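The instructor's notes for this session suggest beginning with a concrete chain rather than abstract definitions. Hand out the sequence below and ask the class to guess, before any prediction is shown, which regions might be ordered.
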Amino acid sequence: MNITKRAFLAGTALAATLSAMPAFAETELVLSSWLPPRHPLVVGAIKPWAEQVEEVTEGRVTVRVLAKPLGAPPAHFDMARDGVADITYGLHSFTSDDRFLRSRVGQFSFLGDDAVTTSTNFWNVYTQDLDAAGEHEGTHVLGLFTHGPGVLLSKDRNFAAPDDFGGFKVRTPGGYPADLMNGVGATTLFMSSGEVYEKLTRGVIDGLCMAMDSVRAFKLDKHITDVMTVPGGLYNTSWFLVMNEGKWDSISAEDQEAIMTVSGAAFSELAGNAWDEADATGYDATSKAGINVYPADEAVLAQIQAVASPLEEAWVAAVTEQGFDGAAALAAMQTAKPAQ
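After discussion, reveal the predicted structure:
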């Protein structure tokens, strides 16, 4: 066999070998995750979404979910905007300034009794009616969602009357929940969810504003005695999933379109399902632990509404000044508001 023929055959064999090898991803995106790796949102939404991105882009784009975050939870939006991480998620209320004013439409009381409905409503209302993209400048919005109906979890405290909130030290995630709890007479402390267990067991706080998933997600079933529920939720939290704008622009239009088929409203549903399943586990844990779960007394509920109404009105006025119909947006979100 002459040299030319041997070279040709060798080249053909090499080409066949290379074509049989799996293609390497063109883009690897780093997602900074600050919740515990086994948290229901991470297991039920963040990681499945990362797998979906790889699938719909046929492996051209992959998402690497970090086991440890690149910064503190309140810093995560800025981390995506500034390119410290490619993708981040977090609560709008963790940012102390008013850059996410319009996102509060997803934080008010009485938004709904399940996370899928509320999360999907939040995506639709915030993006279509309140220009969510404008409040997330420097990033591309991949997802918007809420957790399940907010409840009030407490240790050795039961709220049978409006004046029972006096002296109650409660963890809130900031934003509207903090204003609401201050308004009913409680003393509020801001902290991320990862700090709750230590602060509760040390007696720094008497209770917390969270969703029912927290009972198991943060192992609180041995440390709380009571849970007060409110129709449609005592409050809620609004969340974002965002990508650095420059990184997004570097992805092909074809892959951008593919990624958005599993993002947006689809991610709202995915995250909502994860919260709803975790809330069901939380309710089951309270039953097994003998924790008292009770609906808010009518007088307490009336007090919550009395405090909530001026907070809603102030938000509507502020959003109206920005050129948006805040009243219509809030009405579209508050599907479970009791009649007054």
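Then share the key points. Residues 7-24 have pLDDT under 50 and may be disordered. The radius of gyration is 23 Å.
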